[in-house]
């Protein structure tokens, strides 16, 4: 499908299509049944690190090592806007209401939040982490942004107070590679190179006093990705040991 590493993929259009992006600098929209691309987005000049869709599947946002985040119209394949960053962009995500985009940049380990329509910067949080941001995403309420990093910390930034509401420093003993919310925003799952996943109850105010649910011994190597099922009864994780684990 791609000529290099596939960095991100999503089902869309009621599971009839798949959107994927790659280090081959392209983003492709695939017809699941026919197995070939129906749309190819080719404006990036370096590896594409992530792609994210609006819930109505009308727009896609992509981040790249070419220092940009771009937005595209899914139907026409036309590029809508480009936001230049000062260094490579490692992650991007569009909020569930389609209003905002968050991106993680390598320079000063900064998080940017900008308006998804006008591409104007709403927040510019410098030094948010102490090392490369591996993943940043909105919660389902569009109120908080979670981010994880090579610095082994988990952070939640509040859109309303415009401040970091939660920092977890001791969650994992190695790089945190991915994070995801349940569809109700009650729990956050984090995946790490320490071979474990942890599930955090972030709706409870005093949650930091309680130990997270730890998922161990599913992988023999670093865990690279995680996602909850829609009903939050399962977590699926992928690892550098070439295995996929499904957790109850």
Task: Give a structural overview.
- With 248 residues, the chain is an all-beta fold.
- The chain folds into 2 domains: 6-170, 7 Propeller (Methylamine Dehydrogenase, Chain H); 186-247, no CATH class.
- It has no helices and 23 strands.
- The chain has strands at residues 6-12, 17-22, 27-31, 36-41, 48-53, 59-64, 68-73, 79-84, 89-94, 100-105, 110-115, 121-125, 133-138, 144-149, 154-158, 163-168, 176-181, 187-192, 197-201, 213-215, 223-228, 235-239, 244-247.
- The chain has a 4-stranded antiparallel beta sheet with strand order 1-2-3-4, with no helix packed on it. A 4-stranded antiparallel beta sheet has the order 5-6-7-8, with no helix packed on it.
- The model has no long low-confidence stretch (mean pLDDT 94).
- It comes from Antrostomus carolinensis (Chuck-will's-widow).
- WD repeats lie at residues 1-40, 41-82, 126-167, 169-206, 216-248.
SS elements, strand count: 23
SSE order, one letter for each helix or strand: EEEEEEEEEEEEEEEEEEEEEEE
Molecular shape: globular
- CATH topology (fold) name of the largest domain: Methylamine Dehydrogenase, Chain H
- What percentage of amino acids are in beta strands? over 45%
- How many angstroms separate the termini? 32 Å
Strand arrangement within the widest β-sheet reads 1-2-3-4
- Classified by CATH, the class of the largest domain is Mainly Beta
Q: How much helix, percentage-wise, in residues?
A: under 10%
Helix/strand-derived category reads mainly beta
CATH architecture of the largest domain: 7 Propeller
CATH superfamily of the largest domain: YVTN repeat-like/Quinoprotein amine dehydrogenase
Radius of gyration from the alpha-carbon trace, in angstroms: 17 Å
Mean pLDDT: 94
What count of structural domains?
2
Oligomer: single chain
Largest sheet: 4 strands, antiparallel
In DSSP terms (H or I, runs of 4 or more residues), the helix count works out at: 0
Indicate the low-confidence ranges by residue numbers: none
């Amino acid at each position: 499908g791609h000529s290099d590493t596939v960095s991100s993929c999503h089902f869309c259009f009621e599971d009839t299509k798949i959107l994927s992006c790659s280090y081959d600098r392209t983003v492709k929209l695939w017809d699941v049944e026919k197995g070939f691309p129906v749309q190819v987005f080719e404006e990036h000049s370096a590896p594409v690190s992530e792609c994210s869709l609006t819930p109505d599947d009308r727009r896609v946002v992509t981040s790249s090592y070419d220092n940009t985040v771009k937005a595209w119209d899914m139907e026409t394949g036309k590029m809508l806007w480009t936001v230049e960053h000062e260094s490579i962009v490692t992650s991007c995500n569009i909020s569930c209401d389609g209003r905002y985009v968050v991106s993680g940049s390598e320079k000063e380990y900064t998080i940017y939040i900008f308006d998804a329509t006008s591409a104007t910067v709403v927040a510019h949080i410098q030094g948010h982490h102490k090392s490369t941001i591996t993943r940043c995403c909105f919660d389902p309420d569009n109120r908080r942004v979670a981010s994880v990093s090579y610095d082994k910390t988990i952070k939640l930034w509040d859109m309303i107070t415009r401040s970091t509401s939660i920092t977890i420093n001791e969650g994992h003993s190695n790089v945190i590679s991915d994070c995801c919310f349940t569809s109700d925003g009650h729990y956050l799952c984090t995946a790490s190179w320490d071979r474990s996943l942890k599930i955090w109850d972030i709706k409870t105010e005093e949650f930091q006093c309680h130990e997270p649910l730890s998922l161990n011994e599913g992988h023999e190597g670093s865990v690279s990705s995680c996602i909850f099922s829609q009903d939050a009864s399962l977590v699926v994780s992928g690892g550098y040991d070439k295995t996929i684990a499904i957790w109850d």
